[in-house]
Amino acid sequence: MEKICWENSSYQDCNVVIIGIPDESQSHSLREGTSEAPERIRKISNLADSYNRDGKKSLGFPLNGISKKVFDYGDITRKQIPETFEKIIKDFKVPISIGGDHSLSATIIKQFSKTGKLSLVYFDAHPDFITSIKNYYGSVFGDVIEVIDVKTSMQIGIRTPEKEEMDNLKKFQILVISPFDIAEKGIVKISEQIMSTLGDNVYVSFDMDCIDPSHAPGVSVPVPFGISSVDAILLLKKIANHGIVGMDIVEVCPAYDVKDRTSHLASRMIGEVLSSLK
Description:
34% of the residues lie in helices and 17% in strands.
């Protein structure tokens, strides 16, 4: 199996662990194929984010470089999430996992919540706040609501909620930042709002459909009027610099991508987060 291009360390010495979870068993999407994302993102990271010169591999770094040591753990199954993340958390390493469908995030978040309530930053076009049904990719936020700090958690990029989700967001008074908020207020004010809301135990869950389909066409449920890739990554970098305990990137759907643009974007996002971690 190909490794992410940022991999340059052993597990023992690393600060950050990359984990693939090629599972879409709890997805209801008409577009299938998110289980192919971990392999594709790794492959594209090596093709597009590194260069071969005189037989040697040279990485294309983020502008301010990467100081963290990274280890690609390989792929795990859905059933292996609890034991794998228990080990990583115990070893004080930051996991960046690549899905797979978004339901995977709920199990990861619940594992992290054993160390205390989380400040959850949820990037998505959809709130995933269905509570009448459990344990699928549209109920993630509802499935973890009891283990997060609602006052310091937020949703970013939301633009297609169902009535039940709007009611739940209002009930729990979740901060919601839409693409229209960013366009109206500007990225500086929005980033200040996010930083002033965040707690200390921050976990980031990033559904790639948060980003506009013009930038990220290869997702399972694309929705118009999304966040630009630059705005999304700028916010990610600021949050990572604040400090995060972990992150996941989900819902990349390679079968519907255009010239691997979404997989490449996901790869670059990982690099920019690595360059910004405290």
